[in-house]
Amino acid sequence: MKADLKQIQAPISSEMVEFEKKFRDFMKSKVKLLDHITNYIVRRKGKQMRPMFVFLTAGVCGGIQESTYRGAALIELLHTATLVHDDVVDDANYRRGFFSVNALWKNKIAVLVGDYLLSRGLLLSVDHGEFELLRIVSHAVREMSEGELLQIAKARKLDITEEVYYTIIRQKTASLIASCCAVGASTTGASEEVIERMRLFGEKVGMAFQIKDDLFDYGEDEIGKPLGIDIKEKKMTLPLIYALNHASWLEKKKIIYLIRNKNEDKKAVNQVIDFVKKSGGMDYATQVMNTYLEEALDLLKEFPESEYKTSLEALVRYTIERKK
Amino acid sequence: MKADLKQIQAPISSEMVEFEKKFRDFMKSKVKLLDHITNYIVRRKGKQMRPMFVFLTAGVCGGIQESTYRGAALIELLHTATLVHDDVVDDANYRRGFFSVNALWKNKIAVLVGDYLLSRGLLLSVDHGEFELLRIVSHAVREMSEGELLQIAKARKLDITEEVYYTIIRQKTASLIASCCAVGASTTGASEEVIERMRLFGEKVGMAFQIKDDLFDYGEDEIGKPLGIDIKEKKMTLPLIYALNHASWLEKKKIIYLIRNKNEDKKAVNQVIDFVKKSGGMDYATQVMNTYLEEALDLLKEFPESEYKTSLEALVRYTIERKK
């Protein structure tokens, strides 16, 4: 079944509207500057995939509760905090090592706003005695920061293994979707076993999601983000890692030379992309992605059929069929 | 009674040694890069005032427990996270708006390490089901980030009131010491009333501490941090706020002109300092500081005498008698 996000949202559409209203309330502060910034953040909101995972898993596990809203808000506050913290560096990259005083203010503010949003999320759970939510989300914060740091530590080592690649994407990407699903289940009062199954389900979806994202860089669909950005940044992802592992010694040496020394050269980057395509790197990554997807869907089989389950399955497929 | 930090530490000296060992363990990670950084952080540790407040208040409230160590570690992890996040900007200021790629990496890493340390602290409490500690500390994170943002928002408005000044220092500085004392009390199983009294005690100590810090900038002791830094950064603190509020219209206009336009000029900065001294700004700030101090000590009166209490009183006096 192919579905667009609007169809997928159908069983939780009123909840999503209410959630958005509540989320705005949760972010309110006494400091005007902060309200300006959080209003700006709310306006540029994305596809709302994370709250959708929370509400749909809650639906599948027995029904959306009042605490499901807080769970979704906690995740969304955490995710927003991460995005704001990421801006610290993105802004910097854009400016190529050059900062205006204004940009410095923004940096300081970005760090503080991120910390503030995180604390608001925590307080939301603390004030309602929702210990399990705190446990799930604290783990996610740890995993995500550790995963990003692992990526930085390994970034320049071009001999990164498949194993390390999986560890990085599990920590930096999959852990958040895993948390969404565990939180959704947890807010329905589900058993530890069900919460764990939903966490694993979300983790597998997250793995597939990130592999899809990495495939975009090789221009799989010829739209989406510009080609070869990862190669330019010497970021080793699954298609390239596979291709290098299955290349001859000489070919490997040549490709590594190109990535190390010619990564700013469009022609060399295209050579690397061609190499990956010819070596079957994209096919392999696609196959791994599909395996994660099927394993995720398998984990849903034990739950009774419902409109929530149908939508959740469609949402999972959407994550790998999306065009950007 | 005048005492140095070593004397003050005497009743909790073995606890402080054990704490340091445990704290190192709490910070350990699977990522080598992270361990390098946290080792570096541990080595440049300061006076350990925060753990001292936690252990001494626990001692005063009935005795140090196993959870007191976790409470102290939680606070210290949070404080370290804040310091690391602050480095994002300090580094930047030092470089006067110019960044190397290396500095950018460090920025990204600083944000991530801060987030990581915060999550470790949270997990420490989550894993032991210490809900009250989480409540206290989440409030502190919120207060501190809100306070810093309030300071940024008001920083360029030179007509800041005494009220706003107190709000800023209560949030950005006093809230952390307040948390130390509330956490210390909480880990002994004290009543809500006792926890709240200790929180208020810590808050008053923190207010006195920050006013002392702001007084240093006017060279009260002729040592410590360089003179006039706050004026150079157009940061309005109590001595100056008082002096401006008690100046003639003409004098006020002149001083504001100097701060706004001549803040980089050493002579002009000295003129502002002289103005503050002559207007009694420092005497007033000292008096307010002493009032907070006495109010703090008053709150301790209801607790039975003990070596912990004697040390805690000495620690409070130390915060305003320190030379830097």
UniProtKB/TrEMBL annotation, chains A, B:
Keywords: Magnesium, Metal-binding, Transferase. This is Polyprenyl synthetase. CDD domains: Trans_IPPS_HT. Pfam families: polyprenyl_synt (PF00348). InterPro entries: Isoprenoid_synthase_dom_sf (IPR008949), Polyprenyl_synt (IPR000092), Polyprenyl_synt_CS (IPR033749). GO terms for molecular function: metal ion binding; prenyltransferase activity. GO terms for biological process: isoprenoid biosynthetic process. Belongs to the FPP/GGPP synthase family. Coiled coil: none annotated. Its cofactor is Mg(2+).
